[in-house]
Amino acid sequence: MSEIKIEKINAIWLQGQGCTGCTVSLTGATHPSLPDLLTGFLPQAAGVALVFHPTIMLPHGEEAINVLESGLKGKLDPFVLILEGAIPNEELAEKTGGYWCMVGENGEGKPLTLNYWVDKLSERAAAVVAVGTCACYGGIPHGKPNPTGSKGLLSYLGRNWRSKLNLPVICIPGCPAQGEHVAEVLAHLVLTARGFLPIPELDEFHRPKFIFKATAHENCPRAGFFAEGKYSEEFGEPYCMGLLGCKGPIVHCDVPKRGFVEGVGGCTTVGSICIGCTEPEFPDEPLSPFFKKAPPGVFVSETFGDIKGKLYALLHRLKSRKI
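RESULT FIELD:
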């Protein structure tokens, strides 16, 4: 295992077009928790300082903006830039003399937009993390008709963009993102920066595979009912909810298995359908309307796979074997 190369890592958390739900979710994380990350409970991931967060920081006004200015001047290096919320198209707002998303103002009283800070701080960031589907892919603000021209960080910076540590944009989707997803990925990146862990393997949408590789359907405790052909016809029944509009087979998420807070909760485990909030298209088609059934192809292919598997198992039972 490599020696620790970076003793202190700062975190700058910006908020764009969003509801602050991902922040609330992070405060509910437990394994690890936000205090675990900030107080050094995990020795290898100690030394993390959350120097800017609009919701939970004490400084405000000019004092808060001075923190961001310090980041631009290199006084906070190395730092991780974290975004919660989507990024609007400020060129649209400028046409009418306004702006969409302001994060402070300069000495002359001119608004400093979210886009300004993202542009400038991303140039110095050791890593950039998008938290929540709004920040990753645009989310609800990006949904049709998208009047603000919003987009996610992956599209804004580009798939080929790289940080100072040669890391691409890391996406932790969800509406909101599951708190421990956020805590685990941030801890992983700290350990990556210090040489303890490799860069997390990402899927095509820059989601860490160790969290988002399997579908919600594969992680769902109701999946056995799908295999048995038992479906809920109305809400409140305990069977597979594919007929009620569940999008689990086309959505990548482990919340049905791990829960949302302390192993408790998760859409399908509490009787709701999966609406696909971790996917780039959310909240548009094929995930909407939310109660519309998922495309039939996924059910057809899984049904044939299930038949094939059962036939194989049946024929295999006819073979004798030594024990």
